[in-house]
Amino acid sequence: MDFQATIDADGRIEPRDAMPDGYRKTLIRQIAQHAHSEIIGMQPEGNWISRAPSLRRKAILMAKVQDEAGHGLYLYAAAETLGVDRADLLDLLHSGRQKYSSIFNYPTLTWADIGAIGWLVDGAAIVNQVPLCRCSYGPYARAMVRVCKEESFHQRQGFEILYTLCNGTPEQKAMAQDALDRWWWPSLMMFGPPDTASTHSEQSMAWGIKRHSNDELRQRFVDMTVPQADVLGLRVPDDGLVYEDGHYRFTEPDYTELYDVVKGNGPCNQGRLAHRVKAHEDGAWVREAAAAYAAKKEARAA
Ligand code: BYC
Known about the structure:
This protein is mainly α.
């Protein structure tokens, strides 16, 4: 079956199938950005591993941060099936020529932020990524199935951190509210610009890469999250929030902030990238040793 017939029949495109250049390029852009987000996303949470309030919390957080590294791995591997090399993708990230999600350019100031990331950021990731399990490109869709299972677990652990704080002392509850106040708007921005300003949505939806528009997913996230805030006894920091016709109408985030953060002017952009580049440089000897070992093994087998 040719490319368009497969897309029309809601089938899967596989690595060796013919595909238009634009389809391949769009997938490389989105999957690489997604992979970069996973590994940069390890930093805001990694920041709290040594300060987690108990051994149990520390063990859980370490496992979660490791999961994010694993997600990066599946995604770089999925991108490689499109004919790119992960070393080149990392160079593009390190030189600022490829993006990662805006959300990871905000600081994690208190322990409650770790709860808010799990609840809101992983919650938004689930809303965005569950439809990607039906993406028309097979390797990306299959990677998403496992990622989503792990994200659900992450979301629960974040909610549980906040639930504990919200049922603790007044200071702990105030800390949880402060985290929600700071993470709410950046979480809404994770879904990208509004549909009227989204450059890729229409084509990506026609190709079955994206299944829903940015605004549809943002609405789904708000509808899912507001009742959860009620359970926590927290207030969503939006005076315009009203329940109407089965949906929560909400105030749009300030998209000029999104564009500014994406351009590199968020509170943590420079630090995140510098840390990533240093980690990559510090790991050079591991990559060299692995390559030398593989070469030796190959020579022996020959
Ligand atoms: N941040 O035409 P649009 C995670 C860019 S990982 C930065 O709507 P598209 C997690 C966009 O790239 C979270 N840039 O684009 C990890 C485009 O610029 P270019 C990451 C953004 O691609 C660890 C321009 O704006 N998830 O959840 O159709 C721990 C115009 O936008 C952002 C994914 O990557 C943003 N927020 O739609 C915890 C999911 N929004 O490339 C959690 C996969 C937009 O033309 N990605 N831009 O220069 C997607 O679903 C889509 O790429 C997006 C954007 C919905 C993000």
